[in-house]
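Pipeline run #58 for the internal structure catalog. This entry was flagged by the ingest filter as a single-chain record with no existing model, so it goes straight to prediction. Upstream metadata was stripped on purpose; only the residue string is passed forward. Reviewer on rotation: M.T. Logging verbosity set to normal.
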Amino acid sequence: MIFLKAFIVGGLICAVGQVLIDLTSWTPARILVAFVVLGVALGALGVYEPLVEFAGAGATVPLTGFGNALVQGTKIMIAENGWLGILTGPLSSASVGTTVAMVSALAVSLFAKAKSK
């Protein structure tokens, strides 16, 4: 049942992104940033965590989940280090995802050739 919940919630998040692409003049980059900011806002309000509990990877894999991870890391680091946690929290919670993205980009750049338009 968890797979069905993850599929439905993740699919709905992706469907919202597709609707924004189709019906607005927003660029994909703006939509991605909006999803991260939405995840941060919902995480800060405590609304996103119940969705993660319900849908698992369906809520943590999309970019809204990345924004929520930033908030959760910040909350933990503020509790441990005080106000310094505002700076260290997002960096520590996002380091794995950022590293994977950078290593993946490097690997693709080694095997792909850039083409001019």
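catalog note: The helical segments are 2-23, 28-45, 48-55, 57-60, 63-81, 85-111.
catalog note: The mean pLDDT is 90.
status: ready for reviewer M.T.
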